[in-house]
Amino acid sequence: MHAFVLSGSFGLENVSRVELPTPKPGHGQLAVRVRAASLNYRDLLITRGWYNPKLNMPAAFGSDLAGEVIAVGPGVSRFQVGDRVTGCFFPGWTDGPVTDTKVKSSLGDGWQPGALSQEVVLPEEGLVASPSCLTDEECATLPCAALTAWNALFEQSAIMPGETVLTLGTGGVSLFALQFAKAAGAKVMITSSQSDKLERAAKLGADVGINYSTEPNWDGPVCEHTGGIGADHVIELGGAGTMATSIRAVKRGGVISLIGVLSGLGQIDPMPILMRSIRLQGIFVGSRAMFERMNRAIEMHNIKPVIGRVFPFEETPAALAYMESGSHFGKIVIRVS
Ligand SMILES: NC(=O)c1ccc[n+]([C@@H]2O[C@H](COP(=O)([O-])OP(=O)(O)OC[C@H]3O[C@@H](n4cnc5c(N)ncnc54)[C@H](OP(=O)(O)O)[C@@H]3O)[C@@H](O)[C@H]2O)c1
Asked: Residues with Cβ < 8 Å from 181, sequence gap 6 or more?
């Protein structure tokens, strides 16, 4: 079986296809033929060496996969051969609060199988049944981006109908936040560097689109569209470069879910956070139980993940380069087998 790994040193030019022994499931494990995988910004950070500069090579990468069970090990009871399954980002975080041990189980950062593999072996506890209303390519978009947006809006917070949500950019997490918040009856404001992407976001239900290239002080339009109050909840994906503006854009007593670092790392001024009683919450994907709750909502609201582009397996390095170009809208999917 073939997999894409990072070999030698960091850089997209070192992402190569290798032949690996076909893994066999042990006790409590099952083998999955991967049909589709999706890329996350994290995969770019990993391959560029910005996520973990000490990563051991060769390193598997890719956290999000969907496929079919092709073999089960002894003691497996949750799935059988032929079932359609989707992997969890943290196979070891089934339920309950986050712990150090649970987050150490994350897929695709070198030590675990990566999603860019034709076959993987995973613990049965680290998989969910794929929603029947979605294709494997759509299911592959869910484990990281969708679950992170879900966790921010409904697990660590409770968005109410009529509340206002601001989400940054038109990448994977942001568009899931848009779709989930709309399903919950919220008013959604979204930013983008490109007007055509804002038009596409409007077709998905975005109530307000703000071009952050032409409107660098986008907190102004957010306040205008919320009666001068600010957004109830900000899905903060930019990190240090956007945080000060997000703090101005959120209402007094509102919530900022700190999720991404698209604009890089740096200092954040704590004063306005405490003076305006803002709740700043870090979000790190989520558990299998959250994933299952999210999938019920996806089925009930018939939410279709937004796939910007699908690449064939052999073009995985090109898919990473496409992500780096920032041209995408929503998720980038790899058709594996
Ligand atoms: N904490 C977690 O559990 C978790 C989970 C998933 C992702 N993340 C993080 O969340 C971020 C987004 O991930 P993703 O996978 O959704 O990325 P993505 O799909 O690659 O989204 C990138 C998009 O974000 C927008 N963007 C880029 N720079 C921006 C900036 N400075 N300000 C505002 N928007 C900007 C651009 O949209 P436009 O072209 O529309 O401008 C770009 O196309 C990344 O930092 C990722 O590492 C964290």
From this structure: 153, 159, 165, 167, 188, 233
Domain positions in the chain: 2-141+305-335, 157-282
Percent of the chain topping pLDDT 70: 100
Is the link from the previous residue into 91 a cis peptide, with omega within 30 of 0? Answer: no
Would the pLDDT of 112 be above 80? Answer: no
Domain spanning 2-141+305-335: which superfamily?
Medium-chain alcohol dehydrogenases, catalytic domain (3.90.180.10)
Q: Is the pLDDT of residue 134 over 90?
A: yes
Task: For domain 157-282, give the fold.
Answer: Rossmann fold (3.40.50)
Say how many Å lie between the CA of residue 69 and the centre of ligand 1.
31
Cα–Cα distance for residue pair 55/111, rounded to 1 Å? 9
Please report the pLDDT score of residue 111 as a whole number. Answer: 63
pTM: 0.97
Residue 153 has pLDDT above 90, yes or no: yes
Probe residue for ligand 1, chosen from 38, 39, 40, 180 as the CB with the greatest number of ligand atoms within 8 Å: 40
